[in-house]
Amino acid sequence: MNKKEQFHNPDAILDVYEKPPLGQGVLLSLQHMFAMFGSTVLVPILIGISPSIALLSSGVGTLVHMLCTHFKIPAYLGSSFAFVATMQALMKTDGYPAVAQGAIAAGLVYVIVSIVIAKIGSGWVNKVLPPIVVGPIIIVIGLSLATTAANDAMLNNQKYDLTYFGVAIFTLVMTLIFQMCFKGFTSLISIMLGIVCGYVLSCILGIVDFSGVAKAAWFSIPALDVPGISYHFKWYPAAILTMAPIAFVTMTEHMGHIMVLNSLTKRDFFKNPGLHRTMLGDGLSTIIAGFIGGPPTTSYGENIGVLAMTKVHSVWVLAGAAFFAILFSFIGKVAAVIESIPMPVIGGISFLLFGTIASNGLKIIVDNKIDFGEKRNMLIASVILVIGIGGAYLQLGSFQLTSVALSTIMGMLLNWILPKEAASEKALEEKKYKEKEQKYFN
Fold first, then answer.
1. Which membrane topology describes this protein (predicted)?
2. Helix (H, G, I), strand (E, B) or coil at 157
């Protein structure tokens, strides 16, 4: 444990700086890699680039983020979905070189914002994001992904499949059994064991596609796309103008994830190591991804869900997951086996992971004794929850403000604009005061 770190979270099984034994650490790290794998490789598949390069960039990006934050934040960075629609359009017109330039531009926006925050400080964060805003936003971060989890669990080629749903529920139930009925290390790796059980059942039912495993080479270098080496440099102003502003959207989601981690670890990462460092880490990760051929990266809710469930918050475990992501990007067979995990298995696990994130938002509300008898609190929470969970978004040309980002901004604005008391509440208080005064004088 770091000597400079005096605080120890009593709720954690392994706190941020604590290192697990090697054998246990390997399994805990693999569990995190399984949790993020499906989403991380799905982004490159959607835009038409190699999944192995996305694995490589996510692993390298996570380690860079840890370096920037002095290994104080247990976060994993994977492929960002916020850029998918724009990247798909750019791939059809100018190809990956345009995507790379847009990704680098988005990363530079992060770096510039981090420099600004370093100069002005982050004391404003707690003022614009009090518990009444933070709690509902964290609920939104978890529940906005609920539809994705449900679709993964139920749909086979966009059609309802009872077999798929059965596999998802079986995976969920097995994970719950390992979590609740076992103790010690078995309980800590309940997510990975649940995935293994779901995968075995999927193999028995014949819904696992092994064709990718057969084709994959044992060893292969990821398909790097490096500017000046893989392709000639050329300016793509349209890519820069469309992708760079999306960085402001992912920044709000990034801050939301930091809030969840603050709640889980009982720390304030906005102050130590500082929001400027977390922003810098995200920015550099995305810049590196653009330079080697990967998609932009962002912190992952799936891994935060694993942290919440297992209470293992060790940065060593997350660093191990990054190491395995890099390693498996070079081992084609292993990556293909993990890639063959059916979506209902991922969906079954996601029911638990995303719900756990939302539950932590409820915990913040309860712990801070937020009074929903006050109109102000009720109105702020109501707007955040419905916009965020409902999936409302703001579209301006090719620029889209996602439901999570929009609900966050709305929450901050309402917290700033709304008075401490509604006029009707003031009137009621005045009436009660007058009645007491009248009673006293009578």
1. Multi-pass membrane protein
2. coil
